[in-house]
Amino acid sequence: MAFGSGAMTNSVRDCVEKADVILVIGSNTTEQHPVMGYLIKHVVEYSDTRLIVADPRKVELTEYADIWLRHRCGTDVALLNGLMNVVLNEDLYDHQFVENRTENFEELKEVVSKYTPEKTEEITGVPKGEIIGAARLYAEAGRASILYSMGITQHTTGTDNVLSVANLAMLTGNVGEEGTGVNPLRGQNNVQGACDMGALPPLLPGYQVIAVPEVREKFEKAWGIELPSGGGLTVVEMMNAASEGKVKGMYIMGENPMLSDPDIRHVEEGLKNLEFLVVQDIFLTETAELADVVFPGACFAEKDGTVTNTCRRVQLLHKAVNPPGESKQDWEIICEVSKRMGYSESYASPREIMEEIASLTPSYGGIHYDRLESGEGLQWPCPDRKHPGTPILHKGTFTRGKGLFAGVEYKPPEELPDKNYPFTLTTGRLLYHFHTATMTRRSKPLSAIVPEGFVEINPDDAKKSGIRDEDLVEVSSRRGKIQTRARVTDKVASGTIFMTFHFAEGAANRLTNSALDPIAKIPEFKVCAVRIEKV
Fold it and tell me: What Å distances lie between residue 373 and 48, 128, 206, 289, 314, CA to CA?
């Protein structure tokens, strides 16, 4: 596998409108990415495009799907291995692509051979006939694309899930062409840009590893300062270190971990244990209420700069209105803090910052304000001024040369139901609120549509538990408990309940597990054991 940063290999319209078959796995696309969701519905309704949806929950796209694979939460690796088992056994794989552009094929075959349709059905709960049908539909397509989101990544096996998705795409030759690819849909408007600019512990901008002496030397020369050689901590690791007294101070920008991080009780414990907490945001969030100092930032319409969207497209933003009161643009606040800490950053504008980015980041080398003024944007990698940008990654070759197959075995989630906590809780979002609802719950129309949180429970489970629609219920896990309203619906399978994490008064993340993927260090938001009782 050689998909680097985890960016979309193809463009938004390309991977939908030019695909013969679309596989959506771990993504409630119409609610989390409504523009992309609309495109998918449109092409399925008005063209010959076929759709496969793999999701434990009955999301809207399942109504448009040719095949809905309703697998158990946390069994993605087994499901994907089962699909590949059929592809190999029926000789549906792309021999030429595998031979010329990949390596480690024998290891993949050995692992996948164990996941027969019967075995896969046993693990995932998906009938073997549906597994066979989906494998044939995907593999026999002229062009097939895969779209996924946090339903794939937010597991202790998130890295394994992504490797398995890449395995399936490479096995069928669906990489490096229009209408194909592995396409992770980013959860927020500039998550891709934040990652690109080094907001990951071991990396500097452009995914340049800080431990590499030549990389470090380049940035040290540009910034006139000595850099550490080791990586830092991820979000959950920071909270653990704060609880243990190893991290004394924290600066949080545009993030609300008191609602968005797993095991909120532990998060609160960590934040309160700090000697000094600074929060920079546009509203007084649940996290900002704990801060010693709050810096009022500017929202997207109040600042200049760029964003990098989900398909690597860098776009220019122009300020529409001035920031209110004493609030400032984020870069200005950072520069002021830096100056007072003894390191003077002499940028006069975001344009100057972008010029520095281009000079230090090879993938952004040709991206300059004057080239972005047209409004079209440029997709990285764009190494120099004459380069048109890269709509499709891995054409002809992978970054590492040959794509590396990884034989990945299925591992169950960290926490499974038992007699004390008999249900599986999975979490997600809904259309009318965004992330921790810091902005959307301040919108009267949006808040009027969905004013409070809820928990979805299957009708059979509700009947056994004596729970009716709109009853007040208590949901508890090994980490905490909350109260919310019940929604009785067949959107969730028996044994599973679903909650969004938008609502502070019934915060789902008081319940979720902070166990981490050992490589990506992403928490397992999507699976934990709970019980539910009528209040």
Answer: 37, 53, 22, 39, 11
H runs (alpha helix) in 235-320: 235-243, 257-260, 264-273
Residue 16 sits at φ, ψ, to 5 deg, of: -105, -55
pTM: 0.93
With a cut of 70, say whether residue 202 has pLDDT above it.
yes
CA separation for the pair 463, 187 (Å, rounded):
35
Pair of tokens at residue 529: 């054991």
Tell me the C-alpha distance between 435 and 428, whole Å. Answer: 9
Work out the average pLDDT over 38-55: 97
374 against 109, higher pLDDT: 109
Secondary structure letter of residue 385 according to DSSP: T
Please give the Cα distance from 364 to 358 (Å, whole number). 5
**β partners of residue 523:** 516
529, burial (CB in 10 Å: exposed 0-12, middle 13-18, buried 19+)? buried
Give the pLDDT confidence score for residue 376 in this predicted structure. 86
What secondary structure letter does DSSP report for 398?
Answer: B
DSSP string, 399-453: TTBSEE---------SS---SSS-EEEEEE--TT--TT-TTGGGSHHHHHHS-S-
User: Given 1.10.287.130, 3.90.550.10, 3.30.240.20, 3.40.228.10, which CATH number is that of 14-185?
Assistant: 3.40.228.10
As assigned by CATH, the class of the 191-379 domain is alpha beta
Start-end ranges of CATH 3.40.50.740 in the chain? 191-379
Answer whether 528's CB lies under 8 Å from 512's CB: yes
Contact assessment for residue 370 and residue 387, using Cβ atoms and an 8 Å cutoff = no
Cα R_g (the chain), whole angstroms: 24
As a three-state string, the secondary structure of 489-534 is CCCCCCCEEEEECCCHHHCHHHCCCCCECCCCCCECCCCEEEEEEE
For residue 457 the two structure tokens come to: 């429970």
- Locate CATH 3.40.228.10 in the chain: 14-185
Residue 3 has pLDDT above 50, yes or no: no
Q: Give the CA dihedral 387, 388, 391, 394, nearest 10 degrees.
A: -20
- Listed in order, the ranges of the chain carrying CATH 2.40.40.20 are 423-534
User: Which residues make beta-bridge pairs with 347?
Assistant: none
Question: Cα–Cα distance between 183 and 163 in angstroms, integer?
Answer: 13
∠ CA 180-186-190, nearest 5°, is 125
Token pair in block for residue 418: 């038992």
Class (C level, CATH) for 423-534: mainly beta
Give the percent of the chain with pLDDT over 90. Answer: 90
